[in-house]
TrEMBL record:
Residues 17-39 have a biased composition (Polar residues). This is Adhesin domain-containing protein. Keywords: Membrane, Transmembrane, Transmembrane helix. The chain crosses the membrane at residues 75-93.
Length: 374
């Protein structure tokens, strides 16, 4: 009883003091409000519950992904194939698509040079041949055009510009749109043309030049059956191969297949021949003059070969692999590395003369000024 009385007496003064202060009217002693802690507790509990829910949902997504990962891995080749098929269906030209054919006639007696171009947005193959009809006297250009949509086909056109001062006919196939509209149209559509350029059978000599520019997809095939071009033959194919057979050229031959191969058989040239391709380059040269300067370049893993008869001239070959020269005789190597071979052909044992050659290579500007001093 004494201990209990002591405990009661120990807490009594505090109780009595509080009661005395309350009764006397003086302000009560400050104590921190308990309702702030009471209000923050639900907020903390809500935040914790949301965090736990987020973590549990993320864990559930990871568990689900890990469970279906083997299935996705097994099905990925099929999904890729289906995606490619879908893209082909979107951009494919229907078999029963409407075809528009345009014909151009060029007087070979008045115009001694031809320049043909497939402009931006136009893909297609170009075949150059010679007529079998002896009564034909004009150069004829046949263009067969297709497109994935009728609206795109209506925008395709062909034109020919006849320049009497230079005696050169310039023909091209193009899409009649502004650059922004053409860019949008090519993102959803595709085009294709089949071009045939037919030279008259009676045209033997006097024709100066032939230039072909394929700025998109498509190959170029030239079969002229010994037709002689007095000045030059220039062919550029951006995404396609180039094949040339039975052509005689007086001054310059320049062939470039940016993403394709080059194959030349029975080309007779007198001065400068350059063939450059990302694939293989095969040159079969006929007999030429003593000043031939031939350069073949392959920018990817493809051998460069010269299949040739004996002629008099220099050869320069470059490729990722060791260039190859296959010749019956008379080839002399002057310089060779793993990627380069230089030499010359000579039927009489003497090295031929070099042609004057100026080569420039620059990303911005390359300029040469040649001045004559008296």
């Amino acid at each position: 009883m004494a201990k209990q009385q002591a405990v009661d007496d120990f807490g009594a003064p505090e109780m009595q003091a509080s009661e005395t202060q309350g009764n006397s009217g003086s302000p009560p002693a400050y104590s921190p409000p308990s309702n702030q802690a009471d209000e923050s507790q639900p907020l903390l509990r809500d935040h914790a519950s949301r965090e736990n829910s987020r973590r549990s949902s993320s864990a559930a997504v990871r568990r689900w992904f890990n469970s279906v990962r083997p299935t996705i891995k097994r099905a990925s080749p099929l999904l890729i194939v289906l995606g490619v098929i879908a893209l082909l269906i979107i951009f494919m030209i229907p078999r029963d698509a409407e075809v528009t054919t345009l014909n151009q006639t060029i007087d070979a007696a008045l115009y001694r040079g031809l320049s043909f171009k497939l402009d931006r947005g136009i893909s297609g193959d170009i075949v150059v041949s010679r007529s079998r009809n002896v009564s034909d006297t004009d150069i004829r250009v046949f263009v067969s055009m297709k497109a994935s949509t009728s609206l795109m086909l209506e925008s395709m056109a062909a034109s020919v510009d006849l320049d009497p001062y230079t005696s050169v006919a310039k023909s091209r196939v193009f899409v009649n749109m502004t650059d922004p509209d053409l860019k949008k149209a090519l993102a959803r559509n595709c085009t294709w043309v089949d071009v045939r350029i037919i030279f008259p059978f009676t045209l033997d000599k006097g024709f100066k030049s032939l230039e072909i520019d394929s700025s998109r997809k498509g190959s170029v095939l030239v079969l002229l059956e010994d037709l002689e071009l007095k000045e030059k033959l220039v062919i550029y194919a951006r995404e396609g191969s180039i094949a040339v057979r039975d052509v005689r050229v007086g001054t310059e031959v320049k062939l470039e297949a940016e993403r394709g191969d080059i194959e030349v058989h029975r080309l007779w040239a007198d001065e400068r021949v350059v063939a450059k391709a990302s694939g293989s380059v095969v040159m079969d040269m006929g007999e030429t003059s003593q000043y031939l300067d031939l350069e073949a370049i392959s920018t990817k893993n493809a051998a460069v070969a010269i299949l040739t008869k004996a002629f008099h001239g220099h050869v320069s070959l470059k490729s990722k692999r060791m260039p190859e020269v296959i010749a019956r005789c008379c080839f002399y190597v002057t310089y060779t590395t793993n990627h380069t071979m230089e030499g010359f052909f000579t039927p009489n044992g003497y090295e031929p003369l070099f042609l004057p050659r100026v080569e420039l290579s620059a990303k911005v500007l390359a300029k040469v000024v040649i001045a004559r001093q008296n």
